Amino acid sequence: MTPKVIHTESFSCANDHPIVYYTFDKNNKAMCEYCATHFIYEPKDFHTKMLEEQKLLDMSLKESQKQKEERTPSQEMQDKLEPIPCPMHEDYD
To answer: Which position has the higher pLDDT, 79 or 64?
Structure first.
């Protein structure tokens, strides 16, 4: 069985058993005591992490713009309504 590569120093395993949390030993290896799955720690370099985060931010921005463009009928109707003036909040000369 090929070991699973993990990019964080602590992680969890839940392969058909209770969730168990582990940290890697000094050799950057760990094994689940329940299912005997082997794990290897391979840290990502800073540049790779930043590229992944940038990709997530871009996806988030696109989704936000999409939601802004897709207004519901009730939102569109609310935009068309004129506000009702309130004497307490208006300046009357």
So the answer is: 64
